[in-house]
Amino acid sequence: MNFNKAIVLGNLTRDPESRTLPSGQPVVSFSIATNRVYKDQSGNKKQVTEFHNIVAFSKLADICSRYLIKGKMVLIEGRIQTRSWQDQSGNKRYRTEIVAENMQMGPRGAGDTGAMPSQAPSQAQDEIPIIETEELPSAEEGEEGVNVKDIPF
């Protein structure tokens, strides 16, 4: 059995680009930046950013094009796919992307008015906030694990 599932939580690096396939099916593409913050061997805080290409089809494409804007946080669930084609000069090109199957918008920011993108202020966020994960315990830190009695449900 094989399994191909990708889940990313990050911020849009650009507004979604909408187009229509020859079959009439809507498709939207955008990219998401995810950050990983860690400490190196000397204890210095380091940050690595990864960029993920996302593509969505049909109804999900319509929803993404309406509600997602640059800088906003979004969670995408989907599958990883690599396409290949020949460019105009005859070179073989490749693009790896996540084909979205599910999308969940992130929380509204402090400056977010809740307006639709068409009504949103014209100034887009230039900086993408860092998603901190330092608060999460790791098994390497000698944590004893989760006590079942501590779970609130």
From TrEMBL:
One Pfam short name: SSB
Gene Ontology CC: nucleoid
GO annotation terms (biological process): DNA replication
InterPro entries linked: NA-bd_OB-fold, Primosome_PriB/ssb, ssDNA-bd
Matches recorded under PROSITE patterns: SSB
Chain residue ranges for the region called Disordered: 105-129, 134-153
Protein name: Single-stranded DNA-binding protein
Biological source species: Candidatus Portnoybacteria bacterium RBG_19FT_COMBO_36_7
